[in-house]
């Protein structure tokens, strides 16, 4: 089938090679054992201590890496460039944030059972969107359902209309910009431009305790590894080979009897759900969610992480997320006014000189070319 569709078949020898499994296992040990030990057991004055700041930074980047991985599935393997995935990330974050705001209870500034921004706006009851916000299980379901449903509706009409290329990218930007404007409005009940912050507890446990902070870090790291393995399995399956065929020659795929709409819509929804889960993991660790996460620039950055790391490689976008956000952390402290110039120059340089990203450069060096 792969020869007919015009793509190279993915080896069926297994999900990963022995060497790759070793790397995955080592990454899991670092996330679940080494970092918690260095943070919780090693004294703060030691050179081997992992500071709270470093742990939070890595946790944030791991959330971003999940988004970059989701972008690789839709862009690198299916050829659909989305510039609106930030909205799915933010929706997952807001779903988690609503639950965390209810967990504050009467510990807010106004000592009222409703969130402070609702008390300030003189709201007398919760809006319908908050109906199940006091239930952890219900809100976790919404973390998946809300981004997934939005992606399904948007993707169904866009793909059915055969919108492609730059036109699709533009309407995804319009989608995330419209969502950002909606969430900026106070009457929508999502905190306006300030969003949600000042979280106190999760599942009745103080969120700022070292043990809870580290538990969230471990969950985030294992989720990233789990999504990587899932993505590796997906692209190596028949479904994944059809996606790559759609990327390379969609018309030929249609002539062989496949319906691109179903495949494109499925991977679009899967990538949106991945971003929603990343957003839900991001919020309790960073401590804030606001409409800025839906800005067009935030969505563009997700595409940049994938491009810098190397599209169509899975591991490349993860590396790209760590590289770009690590550089951002340093630049915004040392030279804050130059960060956007650096980011733009980096993207241009990668597009012109390294179309296969960092992974492509490593492979060329390894092959001696």
pLDDT averaged residue by residue: 92
Helix coverage percent = 55-70%
The separation of the N and C termini measures: 32 Å
Low-confidence stretches: 1-11
Helix/strand/pairing class, anyone? Answer: mainly alpha
Going across the biggest sheet, name each strand in turn: 1-4
How many distinct helices?
A: 14
Determine the oligomeric state from the structure: single chain
Q: Profile the largest sheet.
A: 2 strands, antiparallel
Q: From the alpha carbons, calculate the radius of gyration and give it in angstroms.
A: 21 Å
Helix and strand element order: HHHHHHHEEEHHHEHHHH
Strand segment count: 4
What is the general shape?
A: globular
Q: Per DSSP, what share of the residues sits in E-state strands of 2 or more residues?
A: under 5%
Mind explaining what this structure looks like?
The protein is mainly α and 369 residues long. Helices cover 69% and strands 2% of the residues. The chain contains 14 helices and 4 strands. It has helices spanning 2-5, 18-40, 52-76, 86-104, 116-120, 136-160, 165-184, 210-236, 238-255, 260-286, 296-309, 315-334, 339-353, 357-367; strands spanning 196-197, 201-202, 205-206, 288-289. The strands form 2 sheets. The protein has a two-stranded antiparallel ribbon with strand order 1-4. Strand 2 (201-202) and strand 3 form a beta hairpin. The longest helix has 27 residues, at 210-236. It is globular, with a radius of gyration of 21 Å. The two termini are 32 Å apart. The model is unreliable at 1-11 (pLDDT under 50).
Summarize this entry quickly.
The protein has 369 residues and is mostly helical. It is built from 14 helices and 4 strands.
